[in-house]
């Protein structure tokens, strides 16, 4: 197999095996995989196979809403990954981004053209700051980023709740006062074409982020030196690249993507700051998206849509009597199979070699 | 802080220390054999879910239900860790990615099974977990008795016993030596006739057993049922204890106690004058913040097993 073909075939095999394993678990626990797939189809397109109803655009709107933040957290993981860092911190960076966005949304009064960009910028900066901390600890003190980013997630969670409850105040201990209209991504037009779904302008910064990711990584000297650090730190240092600076910058930019996701959720999907009981899984979704998407912009976009659809199908599965967590199980299985890609490749190569002599024989 | 308060903190601190110590010892086996096990958190979740479920289901059958729960937690951890072993030893998966996958899988699978078995997103609450007890005689010793032997969960002594057993196995037996050699230089170990894959399976499965036990201990002493947030990062704190304890069983014991106390502090903070004014969230943050600070002081200086985390290539020299 050529390297290019491998990049496309292996993730597809992993996705396929993930769904096979998920279906097996559904069967083993006495549920019907067919109703699961019906729910997935409905989650993606709004087409109701069971009752034979045509496309319902509301579902498409909700599906895109689910895909937006996890494409961003996927970009976040992938960006750090390109510099050889394994960042599990997107979840916390997203929360800090959302606190920053909440702060600007509530405290600033300005026309929409000023207010909304500033809200998004605040999210980006908040996430970048939260990402830069583990980056700095890694570069300066060589503390492993995996544990630090996970700990930073828990700190962000409680910090978020502290800010919402004690600084902005909440009369129901669940959310802040609603944001002013000027801070929101809300769009009556998009809502009207998707039968009052929550679809909003948030997809524009998401697409911009995908383009910017691809541009930085592939087209700039900075991106090249980041990748060089990812391939071989010592060689990059020898070539005069500033390894420590690159690690901090990479983590900060990764945090920026996740922070933007926080802002998009806060002023797009919701219109108030929220108290969070437990991690909502955007970070781990992002890891799955990035791994399946091969850490490349296009792949992340597609994988984000796939997992977004799966998330959108969760309530539909639950109403079919299939526990919604099956989506997480399928996602985890896909990641596990992506991790096994060397093993899968070995098996495929063996299979191809077995086939090869027979075709040669035919020619003779 | 009065001395009396300090004494009161002990039983709770020891309760939280036990699962951290057990799980971190599991991580020690895995990493010493050369496999990074970031899946400890997920293994704990599986162990906690199984432990709580078995306890609930056996409650009306036997008074020792919680002890069967511990055993079931241990076994479920072994089964779950097989996935990590197969992926990272046979199929040469990136160990951090495989571990992350298992963590996601554990949170999905446990709650999925809760829905199948209990028709809700958590297990039913058990009426009795592991019970506290006082060691006869020893608990009468002044001060020390109250610190270590009065109203303590027996799981803490299990953890202490495991520290000693781990030290003996890892440092005093041929098996331990072989296992450690696979974590330092697997090619050299292989040249001496050691079966690297077998040793690594041993390390990962023991980490599954101890992680599963740790999870069951945690839910059966500190909780009333299993929920998605029962473990809330304890597996990762155990991982940090391993680094903090320099991959040594006694170091792990010290680190585990340290984190146990930092968790207990959040329960007693309101009784301590100079801390009482701070918001509750501050104390929730404390164990995680201390983990980072501990890593900061120790990560640079302590060095883990050399080959830990690398994919084994028998052809490499």
Structural features, described:
- The complex is a heterodimer of chains A (364) and B (317).
- With 364 residues, chain A is mostly helical.
- In chain A, helix 3 runs parallel beside helix 8, helix 3 (57-82) runs antiparallel to helix 11 (243-269) and helix 13 (297-319) runs antiparallel to helix 14.
- Chain A has 15 helices and no strands.
- With 317 residues, chain B is mostly helical.
- Chain B has one domain: ABC transporter involved in vitamin B12 uptake, BtuC.
- Chain B is 68% helix and 0% strand.
- Chain B contains 12 helices and no strands.
- In chain B, helix 1 (3-32) packs across helix 10 and helix 2 crosses helix 9 (196-222).
- At the A-B interface, helix 6, helix 12, helix 14 and helix 15 of A face helix 3, helix 4, helix 10 and helix 12 of B.
Short description:
The complex is a heterodimer of chains A (364) and B (317). Chain A is mainly α.
CATH architecture of chain B: Orthogonal Bundle
Helix proportion of chain B: 55-70%
Strand content of chain A: under 5%
Radius of gyration of chain A: 22 Å
Mean pLDDT metric of chain B: 90
Ranges of chain A where pLDDT stays below 50 over 5 or more residues in a row are 360-364
Helical stretch tally of chain B = 12
CATH class of chain B: Mainly Alpha
| Major sheet description of chain A | none
Give the overall shape of chain A: globular
